[in-house]
Amino acid sequence: MAKYEACATGVLMAVEHQAKKLKVFGDSALVIYQLCGEWETCDSKLIPYHNYVIEMSECFDKITFYTVPKDENQTANALATLSSMLRVNQDQEITIHVWHQVKMAYYQHLDRDEADDKPWYHDIKEYLRKGAYSQGATENGKTTLRRLIVAFFLSGPVLYKRCTDLTLLHYMDDQEAKEIIGEVREGIFGYYWTKMESDCCQHVKRCLKCQVYANNIHVAPSALHNLTSPWPFSMWGLDIIEPIELKASNGHRFILVAIDYFMKWVEVASYANVIKSVVVKFIKKDIIC
Fold first, then answer.
1. Residue 231 placed within a domain
2. Which range of residues forms the domain containing residue 29?
3. What is the pLDDT of residues 97-153, one digit of tens each?
4. Which residues form the RNase H type-1 domain (predicted)?
5. SS3 breakdown of the chain: % helix, strand, coil, rounded to 5?
6. Paired residues of 160 in beta bridges
7. How far apart, in whole angstroms, are the C-alpha atoms of residue 119 and residue 128?
């Protein structure tokens, strides 16, 4: 209904200004196609809005409706988002300045250069290769380095990290990491760097397709594990009714009841005495079998 209200407001303003020819642009295909007559208006809530716009359309010599794709309507979406965030009084005016950038906004970011043109794992790699510390290393830094190298493995020029599951992860520098971020979406790779998660988050923020077309993720963040029970809600409750004052004709005076909490199914049996063997027999006969 909000889309219809916005369309009706725009058409009403054109009527008040006595316009004779009008082109209506909207990003809602449902509203535009219904006003054009290509789609039928079946929702009872939308029919009054549809009839109101059609009635105002008779005030124009010519009126046409056009759909605008959402990726071509970014300015209007930005203004709509801005208006919902600000509280403006009726007589208050706000000036909005718009700057046009050479590149798209998702490309406007700062490239982080590595200090001294050396990868962040340079000290670890050099210690594994030569057994020497970097110049100016403090005692605390040397102790930390010796503790870190236990989890690393050097195979030729390639540095790997040992995981708890004995997997070797290839260590990457910042330049290689930027190239792999785009490739990792095509499959699963055994690469690792300390800022992997934060770099991927920044890449998604700059990726236009991720922001515009990607669906919400409803997949579990980790692999699902099987439960020991076949059904999570499979549960039975057992209860014994106290001895009744008058015995039954067969001498039974105890009632054993079992209830399935999920299906609400009830199993009932009467016994002369309720002992261990009787309960086991009841479970096997009436619940399991």
1. no
2. 2-72
3. 877 766 665 555 444 444 556 777 788 888 888 888 887 788 888 888 888 888 888
4. 1-81
5. 40, 15, 45
6. 153, 170
7. 15
